[in-house]
């Protein structure tokens, strides 16, 4: 690892993923998290299957990989100021809807018009992500 406590692997080609990572990295005032785009690492050096890593965020803490909602919980536990969101994610995981909601958003992430909204309207291309 890079000397940081947490390694987060994300899809660098996804606008939503980049926006979320940008926000999380800004909030990581202790600089305990290293955010790495999957595309920047040779496939042989990835800690998990490349295809699986493109579908869900992955997080490496103390040699253990977590994915999806569990990865988000691990990440937010290292970032101050998101206690309510962390509580909601933990609750969602415990009642069994956390990964269902995560997978729904992840599977439709290319449809979310991140940074494409201006003057009350958003650019939307329904063929993107197909």
Architecture blueprint of SSEs:
Elements lengths: L5 E5 L4 H13 L5 E5 L12 H6 L2 E4 L2 E4 H9 L6 H13 L2 H10 L9 E2 L2 E2 L8
Parallel strand pairs: 1-2
Antiparallel strand pairs: 1-3, 3-4, 5-6
Descriptive keywords:
single chain, 130 residues, alpha+beta, four-stranded mixed β-sheet, two-stranded antiparallel sheet, 39% helix
Give an overview in words:
The protein has helices at 15-27, 50-55, 68-76, 83-95, 98-107; strands at 6-10, 33-37, 58-61, 64-67, 117-118, 121-122. Helix 3 runs antiparallel to helix 4 (83-95). The termini are far apart. The model has no long low-confidence stretch (mean pLDDT 84). It contains five helices and six strands, in the order βαβαββαααββ. A hairpin with a 2-residue loop joins strand 5 (117-118) and strand 6. Helix content is 39%, strand content 17%. By secondary structure, the chain is α+β, with helices and mostly antiparallel strands. The strands form two sheets. It has a four-stranded mixed β-sheet, with helices on one face. It has one domain (6-122).
Rg from C-alpha positions?
15 Å
What fraction of the residues are assigned to beta strands by DSSP?
A: 15-25%
How many separate domains? 1
Helices and strands: which structural class? alpha+beta
Order of helices and strands: EHEHEEHHHEE
Dominant shape: globular
Q: For the residues shown, what is the average pLDDT?
A: 84
Number of strands: 6
Q: Describe the biggest sheet?
A: 4 strands, mixed
- Low-pLDDT segments: none
> What is the CA–CA distance across the termini?
34 Å
Fraction of residues in H or I helices? 25-40%
Q: Looking across the biggest beta sheet, what order are the strands in?
A: 2-1-3-4
